[in-house]
Amino acid sequence: MHLRHSDGHVFRIYQEIAEKKPADEPPVHPNPSELTDMTTTPTAHRRGRLLMLLGLGLAALGIAAYVGQLWLQRLAVPWYMPATALIGAALVAVSLWERRTIWRILALIVVVLLGGFEVMALNAMRLPPYTGPVVVGRPFPAFEAKLADGSPFTQASLAGDRHTVMVFFRGRW
């Protein structure tokens, strides 16, 4: 039998089986020293495990979202990857704070390393500063290229009575 105390602690009462007692003895009332404190409830373990799994899931969700972004051919900076890893590391750290187990320690190490890798990958995706030949205020350098239909396109193609804007898109794929 379990009793719940007013402060939330659960106590278990051990009673003797009625058949073992002689019939003429009065009923035995539990002695407070026979009560056992059960302060660690299974729900605390489940909450910590849930936090750990949510943290690992968030870290994996950042990578899955980036794979989906590439599959959709959306070339944008995946800033959300280290953000989800950071939130995931915080959840795993809270889980570790509640109860220290080797699995939670390993999960925290994995999520922190994954977040560090994602930050390094974002840093590697940055474009280098432009150091090309086109500078504001100087004449455009001579060049020769071919249009999609195969006709030549040179600096002379830009000359004329109308203003022309040439845009250089520096992509890295």
Strand content: 5-15%
Helices and strands: which structural class?
Answer: mainly alpha
Estimated radius of gyration: 34 Å
In the predicted model, the low-confidence regions spanning at least 5 consecutive residues are 10-19
Determine the number of helices (DSSP H or I, runs of at least 4 residues).
3
Shape field: rod-shaped
Fraction of residues in H or I helices: 40-55%
Please outline the major beta sheet: 3 strands, antiparallel
Q: Calculate the terminal CA-CA distance, rounded to whole Å.
A: 68 Å
The SSE string, one letter per element, is EEEHHHEE
Number of strands: 5
Nearest-integer average pLDDT? 77
Strand order of the largest sheet: 1-2-3
Brief descriptors of the model:
173 residues; mainly alpha; two-stranded antiparallel ribbon; rod-shaped
Plain-language structure description:
By secondary structure, the chain is mainly alpha-helical. Among the domains are: 2-37, no CATH class; 43-124, no CATH class. The chain is built from three helices and five strands, in the order E-E-E-H-H-H-E-E. The protein has helices spanning 42-71, 80-98, 102-124; strands at residues 2-4, 10-12, 36-37, 144-146, 152-154. The strands form two sheets. It has a three-stranded antiparallel β-sheet with strand order 1-2-3, with no helix packed on it. Strands 4-5 form a two-stranded antiparallel ribbon. The model is unreliable at 10-19 (pLDDT under 50).
Task: Furnish the topology, listing elements before pairings.
Elements: E1 2-4, E2 10-12, E3 36-37, H1 42-71, H2 80-98, H3 102-124, E4 144-146, E5 152-154
Antiparallel strand pairs: 1-2, 2-3, 4-5
Helix pairs in contact: 1-2, 1-3, 2-3
